[in-house]
Every structure is written in C-alpha cells, then in structure tokens.
C-alpha cells in the first residue's frame, strides 16, 4: 500500500504555555491523519489558529489574522481554516458568523475531535466540555521536533474565579490528570531525548490525585515520583496560585535537586483592598509570609510574578502598595499588564480607572520590575550554574541554553551538542542573557 501525499498543516499559537502544549498535541493528532507541519502558511492545506482570550488585544489578534487570510482562501477555496483555543471556546459560532471563511471551531477541551472535524465527520463547531477526557483519545506523545525540553499538562481549568479573568469560563472547571498517565507521558518524552519537563496547569500547584501507592498525592509528591525517572534531569512547573502552595511542595523545593530553583507565583496586586476586589482570597502579608517560607526551604530560588495595573477602583495608594510589595520581594522578572475588561467576568461592569492613569502605573511597575530583573541577572555573575543546551548560539562554536534559574546563557562549547547538561561559570550579564564559561 502506498501512503497518500501528506497534507500540510500550519499552526499559529497565541497565549500561554498551555496553548503551546495543546498545539503540539493537535499537530500529533493531525499527523496520525496524514498531516505534516509546515512553517509556510501559503503552502498549507490547513491553517489552525490556536487562540488566547485573556486580554482584549490577544482576542482581537485572531480577527486581524483571519482578515489577512482572506486572499489565500479566495485563491484556494479548499484551504481549511480552523480556530482553536480560548477564543474558540468563548465565542464559538460567533466566529464563523463574523468570519465566514472559518471552517472549524474547536474548544480547548474538545480538540481530540479535530481530525474527525477536518474529515467532515464531526460538527464544524465543537465547544462543549465533553464528558470524556481528551487525553484518552489522543495519540501517545511523538516527537514532532527533537528538543531537550518539553511541556506536560497535568492540570487544567480553574475554580478560582478571579474577578478579572476569563480562564474559568474558557478552560472550565479544575481537573487533574491521573498520576499514572502523567508518569507514562513523562517516560515517553524522556525516551525521546527530553531531559527537562515543565508541568503545566492553570493552577498547577492545585494538582492532586491518587498516586501509585493508592494515597492522595499533591504536586510535591508527584514531582518526587517524576524525579525518580532516569534521564529526566530537570523539573519545573507553572502557573501557581499562592493559596495552593502546599507544605509538601515547598519542602520539595528544598529536598529535590531535580526541581529547579525558580517559581512563578502571580500576586496581581500588593493592596489588600484590590486583592479582595479581585477575589484573590489572600492578603499581601500572607503572600509575603509564603515567600519567606519558600525562601527558607530554598534560599537561592528566583521568584517571578504577574501584576495588573489599573484594576477597577485601584487608587494611587493601592498602586503604591503594589510597588512596595515588589520592593520587599525582589522579583527575578515579572509580567505586568494593563487591566483589560473581559466580557462575562464580574469586574467587567465596574467603573474603570482613567486609561492615562492606568498607563502611567503600568510604566512605573515595568520600570521597577525591569530594574529588579537586571539586578537578578547581574547577581548571577561569578556563580556556577547548570545549563541545558537547547540550540547553537549566534557565533561559531557557541551554544545557548537555560540555566537552572531559567536565564538564557551563551557558552563557547565547540564540542558540545544540543541536549548536553553542563556546569558553567557565569562571566557577564547582557540585557536579556548571560555569558558563561564551561567548567570541567
Ligand atoms: N492562572 C494564573 C495565570 C492566568 S492568566 C494565575 O492564577 O495567576 C495570566 C495573567 O494574565 C494573570 O496572572 C494576570 O496577571 C493577567 N490577566 C488575566 N486577566 C487579565 C485581564 N482581564 N486584564 C489584564 N491582565 C489579565
Ligand atoms: Fe484566572 Fe485567577 Fe484562575 Fe489564575 S487563578 S486562571 S487569574 S481565575
Ligand atoms: Fe490565553 Fe487561554 Fe492561556 S485565555 S492565557 S490561552 S488559558
């Protein structure tokens, strides 16, 4: 039997790391149906846009990209255009109404049905949260590209309902994948050359499930089980909620050498009034105490966070409280966003902060956070760190990889190859990377 000519699939991914993971899984599901990935949209038989709904700008990007696809679709009417991800979930059929060139719309919990949809054997719009687990219907992990690092979704959805956020609506209720499935997927990845795995979840530290010993496990225990896999050298996880930072997870940071000294722990604001209005369910002081406990377990850990500027009702005092919290913690890097009202969320009807005021606050946050980022990087100079090489650098003989602390490090290493995990002395700090020298 001769195999049919492969069809070409182009995927564009917006939004968070979970979307990056989902795009890989969709590519693998479509590969089982004869599609190969292409980097060239103009050559594609199918274009899939995996979208993000978190802020208005992110969601609007979909429509400008679809507008740009009109000439290609006019030229080749058989080109299939699919919309996946969180905008697909939030807007469903509204997308095909507004943009008739779209053939398929699939939500983040239903993308195991994408191959059938592309064959015309399933409805063109699937956004219900199906009763079955999509992971049970997806092919086992195949390496679409060989990289020493990989994402692995362990938890999805969110029950926290922060007043500004669409995720509980687009991703649905919190669900943890069973530990045995996660361990199998991790072993599959390691067998394909992966040495570092980042566990993903909208509230990844809320992961829980029955372990191999029949007991209830939390993320800390899962990490210890993963650390027993030979050939898996580094473990990371994102994104966490402060209220789900369990004792055994904090302990794992001190006890498990494969768990990297880096933690993304969004706090959003340093004002108790704003935290309450956001429905974050903790105070600034509780966050600071949590940071103290984490640093006691792992003194060299680098911390990062997310902040929102101009949340409805935020005053200058509230804003100063956020700057104060940032000063007190000292973040290695952090993301700050101007508040964007999202349809259907509780905060959407509240009176907004004057846009120019929100802009000014955002700039102030960003200036402080980039100063801290520079300082954190400069503090690495002279230190010895592990670096996992991910690709060749700009200069001949140079490699680039991530340090234990997730900094990009350039190293002269003419004998090295991608996937080598080496010890490096940091020599210098550039704006967005470090330079290091091979030890040994
Ligand atoms: N689950 C994570 C992150 C979710 S979204 C958490 O609990 O923190 C990533 C970040 O986007 C959030 O941390 C928040 O800072 C930002 N964000 C979410 N909704 C937003 C909105 N409506 N406007 C501005 N920023 C928003
Ligand atoms: Fe959104 Fe809050 Fe859930 Fe994070 S915890 S995904 S910010 S609702
Ligand atoms: Fe965006 Fe959905 Fe991720 S809204 S940030 S793609 S969970």
TrEMBL record:
SUPFAM superfamilies reported for this sequence: Radical SAM enzymes
Primary enzyme class: transferase
Residues the record lists as binding [4Fe-4S] cluster 1: 16, 52, 86
Catalytic activity of the protein: N(6)-dimethylallyladenosine(37) in tRNA + (sulfur carrier)-SH + AH2 + 2 S-adenosyl-L-methionine = 2-methylsulfanyl-N(6)-dimethylallyladenosine(37) in tRNA + (sulfur carrier)-H + 5'-deoxyadenosine + L-methionine + A + S-adenosyl-L-homocysteine + 2 H(+)
Domain MTTase N-terminal: 7-123
Domain Radical SAM core: 144-379
Binding-site list for [4Fe-4S] cluster 2: 158, 162, 165
Cofactor requirement: [4Fe-4S] cluster
Key words of the record: 4Fe-4S, Cytoplasm, Iron, Iron-sulfur, Metal-binding, S-adenosyl-L-methionine, Transferase, tRNA processing
Taxonomy, superkingdom: Bacteria
Pfam families in the record: Radical_SAM, TRAM, UPF0004
Enzyme Commission identifier(s): 2.8.4.3
GO MF term set: tRNA-2-methylthio-N(6)-dimethylallyladenosine(37) synthase activity
InterPro entries on file: Elp3/MiaA/NifB-like_rSAM, Methylthiotransferase, Methylthiotransferase_CS, Methylthiotransferase_N, Methylthiotransferase_N_sf, MiaB_methiolase, rSAM, rSAM_horseshoe
Entry note: cofactor: Binds 2 [4Fe-4S] clusters. One cluster is coordinated with 3 cysteines and an exchangeable S-adenosyl-L-methionine.
Domain TRAM residues, every copy: 378-440
Subcellular location(s) per record: Cytoplasm
Keyword Metal-binding: yes
Family stated for the protein in its record: Belongs to the methylthiotransferase family. MiaB subfamily.
UniProt subunit comment: Monomer.
HAMAP family noted in UniProt: tRNA_metthiotr_MiaB
Protein name: tRNA-2-methylthio-N(6)-dimethylallyladenosine synthase
Protein source organism: Paracoccus albicereus
